[in-house]
From TrEMBL:
EC supergroup of this enzyme: ligase
Name of the featured protein: Phosphoribosylamine--glycine ligase
InterPro entries reported in the protein's UniProt record: ATP-grasp, ATP_grasp_subdomain_1, PreATP-grasp_dom_sf, PRibGlycinamid_synth_ATP-grasp, PRibGlycinamide_synth, PRibGlycinamide_synth_C-dom, PRibGlycinamide_synth_C_sf, PRibGlycinamide_synth_CS
Cofactor(s) the protein needs: Mn(2+); Mg(2+)
Pfam families linked: GARS_A, GARS_C, GARS_N
Functional pathway: Purine metabolism; IMP biosynthesis via de novo pathway; N(1)-(5-phospho-D-ribosyl)glycinamide from 5-phospho-alpha-D-ribose 1-diphosphate: step 2/2
UniProt-listed GO biological process terms: 'de novo' IMP biosynthetic process; purine nucleobase biosynthetic process
NCBIfam families recorded: purD
EC id: 6.3.4.13
Gene encoding the protein: purD
Protein keywords: ATP-binding, Ligase, Manganese, Metal-binding, Nucleotide-binding, Purine biosynthesis
Source organism: Simiaoa sunii
């Protein structure tokens, strides 16, 4: 098979690494890819939102399966564009990707089908939102830009003043662009966050192993929200009891709800869960693999990823027995100091060769570029250093040891990824 992966981050590097292990695959392309992906795939200089060019390339190269990794092209309808030309694609169509593309849509869906989530209201008018906030008796409260905002469009406001400023930021100042044309205001939930990825074929769902992300930029969950500073899998807080509840009231219920709405979902549903004192509730849905969750979940998957993805496309996922290794993995993101606000690029990265041939260790490239000087930093999140271990503590120790193998100017990371493991 010839496979095309659309995207150029750590998630796509993790997907490409998994695809490269499949005996079904002879050739991997990636658009646009990055320096790390370029070591296992042929990178082509086409942007993820250049639909016409992607479709033309897939036709010219007789691509057997296109895997769309990123949220923007999924929400924009890249899968529809590929399928319209008779090409096979893994990922939800536009009318299903709205599950991530509009938080207002997903909240309304959960309310309609009694899927547990936080109490909320939707607003497309700043004055109405302000009026609503002034009527609230308790804070903190959560403001969410309706559309895609690179994982950063969520504000937790501890006071009314913060919330009013947040409305200005999202709806009037358009900090998150058009994503802030509408807004969700919801109750602040307390508890442990858990990420659960799943494969879906429109009717059947297969749950992957659990993970937990660290969104804040600084140690102790301080600082600004980011795309993710590290993650671990499995989550010790995702118990058999939690799993049973979610299977009964959340997972299949979401798939059935989308089908009932005439929006059958094929691809990956990412369930962002909050384990509240009143049971698990949905924080958010994503319509693709999480980043960096994919970096700890996919290395632990035993199945041939191409077989699973083809089953999703063909509606035969019920025939797949999804299996994961009985171990753990931890990913620590090496970022450029100053991320997620401002940072410099173009610093030479050294030590990447230390990962060659080391079983259970991975260095997933996120923001890198190949230049005459070698591989250089080319983004806020630069690398995802991932390691496996017999258990979470061993995996964490291995991952942090491996971060020392890499050096570049302005290298920054959190030092408490997976610290919650110690409390489990």
């Amino acid at each position: 098979m010839k496979v095309l992966i659309v995207g150029g981050g750590g998630r796509e590097h993790a997907i490409a690494t998994c695809v490269a292990k499949s005996p079904k695959v002879d050739k991997i392309y990636c658009a646009p890819g990055n320096a790390g992906i370029g070591q296992i795939a042929e990178c082509v200089p086409i942007g993820a939102m250049e639909f016409d060019k992607i479709v033309a390339f897939a036709k010219e190269q007789a691509i057997d399966l296109t895997i769309v990794g990123m949220d923007d092209p999924l929400v924009g309808g890249l899968v529809d564009a590929l399928e319209a030309e008779g090409l096979r694609a893994f990922g939800p169509r536009k009318n299903a990707a709205i599950l991530e593309g509009s938080k207002a849509f997903s909240k309304d869906l959960m309310k309609k089908y009694n899927i547990p989530t936080a109490a909320y209201e939707n607003f497309d008018n700043a004055e109405e939102a302000i009026k609503y906030l002034k009527e609230q008796a308790s804070f903190p409260i959560v403001l969410k830009a309706d559309g895609l905002a690179l994982g950063k469009g969520v504000l937790i406001c501890n006071t009314l003043e913060e919330a009013l400023a947040g409305v200005d930021e999202i709806m009037l100042d358009k900090k998150f662009g058009a994503a802030g044309n509408r807004m969700v205001i919801e109750e602040f939930m307390t508890g442990r966050e858990v990420s659960v990825l799943s494969f879906v074929d429109g009717k059947t769902i297969r749950i992957m192993t659990s993970a937990q992300d660290h969104k804040r930029a600084k140690d102790g969950d301080q600082g600004l929200n980011t795309g993710g500073m590290g993650t671990f899998s499995p989550s010790p807080f995702y118990t058999e009891e939690v799993d049973a509840f979610c299977k009964k009231y959340i997972y299949q219920a979401t798939v059935d709800a989308m089908a009932a709405e005439g929006r059958p979902f094929k691809g990956v549903i990412f369930f962002g869960l909050m384990l509240t004192p009143n049971g698990p509730k949905v924080l958010e849905y994503n319509a693709r693999f999480g980043d960096p969750e994919a970096q700890v979940v996919l290395p632990r998957m035993k199945n041939d990823i191409i077989e699973v993805m083809e089953a999703c496309v063909d509606g035969t996922l019920d025939q797949i027995d999804l299996q994961f290794e009985d171990n753990a993995a931890v990913c620590v993101v090496l970022a450029s100091d100053g991320y997620p606000v401002s940072y410099e690029k173009g610093f030479v990265i050294s030590g990447l060769e230390n990962f060659d041939g080391k079983d259970g260790y991975y260095c997933f490239h996120a923001g890198t570029k190949l230049t005459d000087k070698g591989i250089v930093t080319n983004g806020g999140r630069v690398l995802g250093v991932t390691a496996k271990g017999a258990d979470l503590k061993e995996a964490r120790a291995n991952a942090y040891a491996a971060t020392e193998w890499i050096s570049f100017e302005n290298k920054y990371m959190r030092h408490d990824i997976g610290k919650a493991i110690d409390e489990a």
